[in-house]
Prior knowledge:
Shape: globular
Helix content: 55-70%
Number of strands: 0
Distance between the termini: 61 Å
Amino acid sequence: MPVYVDREAPKLWRKICSETTIEISLLAENWKIILGGIIFQYIHGLAAHGVHYLHQPGPLLQDSGYALIPELGEDKAYISETLFSFLFFSFVLWTFHPFVFQSKSFHTVLLWCRVLACLVVCQMLRIVTFYSTQLPGPNYHCREGSKLARLPRPESVVEVLLINFPRGMIYGCGDLIFSSHMIFTLLFVLTYHKYGTIRFIKQSAWLLAIIESLLIIASRKHYTVDVVVAWYTVNLVVFFINKKLPELPDRSNASASLQFLPVSSRDKDGRNKDELHRSNNGTSVNTCNHHSMFYLLVAFLSSTVNCCLYRSRTQVNTHSQR
């Protein structure tokens, strides 16, 4: 059903309505891919929770990264989570910028179809890998003496299916090779590198991905091999999937999508074509940059809140162990 918007409606509102109409039509065609990718996130969480039942705590393995990178300590483990949250929320906000900005290079639904396809393949490889060999977890709650290192036998199937959310996701053990945090980080960075437009953000994203890798090792959340394997596995998966999937349609040189949005009947005869043309081709580069900084600020605030929650849960867990 077409959406009719008054010609006098605010320009931003017309953009949002126009883009929503287009994206809904694309979602109707690709909803199975989106739904399948979302469902697999639960399957991946279920698999990670299941391997925790098999985890056997033991001494830390010899690791070159541990010898080279100083340990942050349990009280500073939130730093890597804060950076990851910032990258995660920044990417999610950026994927929805076509709803607001005049300049756009992709459709949000089609981009997420590609992202979820890469994510599912990487997670399938990860599940096969960490179920093949269970290593003693290097994280503090996975070491010998911690009450969370082992899970008691489940009393029912429901207990397994609920995966003890969110505690089971935060204090998991055994799902090591390869790092799930690095899967998301590298996939998001690679996607922005391909479809993003601001060179400075591209370079900064790669730098933050490297910093995130070092922080994960310094926090002793993963062995170095978990991070190294993630770097080449994710890049290879994205490379081959991009070869197989058709390229996303380029919208950068296309006319604005306002032409796809019907106006009310009382405006059809009196519509000023020159005015519409100017609104479709208005300058938006500076606006895009300003809004990108705004989205980064929102992502930073979201990651800060997530960091505080993570740190408080860690402190509560530490006190409960004592």
